[in-house]
Design a protein that fits this description.
The protein is 31% helix and 28% strand. It is α/β, with parallel strands linked by helices and 308 residues long. The protein folds into 2 domains: 112 residues, NAD(P)-binding Rossmann-like Domain (Rossmann fold, 3-Layer(aba) Sandwich), CATH 3.40.50.720; 155 residues, Dihydrodipicolinate Reductase, domain 2. The longest helix is centred in the C-terminal third of the chain and has 15 residues. Bound molecules: NADP nicotinamide-adenine-dinucleotide phosphate (NAP).
Amino acid sequence: MSPINLAIVGVGKIVRDQHLPAIAKNPDFRLIAAASRHGTVDGIDNFPSIEAMLAAVPAIDAVALCMPPQYRYTAAQKALSAGKHVFLEKPPGATLSEVADLEALAAGRGLSLFASWHSRYAPAVEAAKAFLAGTTIRSMQVIWKEDVRHWHPNQDWIWQPGGLGVFDPGINALSIVTHILPRPVFITAATLEFPENRDAPIAASIRFSDADELDLSAEFDWRQTGRQSWDIVARTDAGEMVLSEGGAKLSVDGRTIHAEPEQEYPMLYRRFSEIVAAGISDVDLAPLRHVADAFMLGRRKPVAAFHD
Ligand code: NAP
């Protein structure tokens, strides 16, 4: 099979840190163009907008959309309408309905749409899923606490409507939880803390359950200084499972379980190539649905103003 001619849109932090190195190592892709208002990629044709790029480079087969979620739908709609396969960074959009619309558009045109969830490919996630499949889970606690000033300095979009606030990292935890749990869960209560000068939450405390009254809670907080926590702790009849460092490490009752090497973005591009070859889409909206439910059901608590 000849390589997929790929273009990238929204050249920012995640493109430079992860997409470009992963694409360079994958022979299934040839990066031929980029569209970004300010950013550029060396060695390929660069355009100021997706419209200009699609018009100038008909050889593009697929586009990876890496801009903030509020601007992803319009770009995805243009790319699919021009007959291109689409890779969506996480979260796949600003609303559930717009992603459903893209899914229908892709299906109608026989194109592949990929709603990527990079944290699902963290090294120890599959081992955690396999462990939980053979146990009875008594309770699960998700602790995702990081310093927003360190990880998202001056990213205004993240605090605007649709930017998700603390759910931008929190949705990564939800993408893991919804993948490793053997059955679906739903939110029963939530408290969302909004800085008085922002339109998105800085912290969230969420309770989930299921038909068997599973005790599952999540704490997301962006005010964490010092040690950062991206941990999922499950108490089970086979011991206490700790999936830590965002899915990179796994232990059961303190014993470390072997994890695969770090491969999140290489695995995402392998999956994208696979679905394009198979002529299918891969769109699991469960993590975004939980975020939407938290906004629907959550109590809103005003807290002190946040300044970068
Ligand atoms: P970013 O650097 O702030 O944004 C990416 C690029 O999007 C910007 O450089 C900008 O490029 C373009 N952009 C910004 N505002 C735009 C607008 N109003 N309209 C169109 N394009 C706009 O953000 P990022 O950290 O790369 O994150 C982008 C996406 O990747 C987010 O959905 C995020 O959740 C996800 N992600 C980020 C990370 C991470 O560690 N940062 C990890 C995994 C996933 P131009 O100004 O050149 O157009």
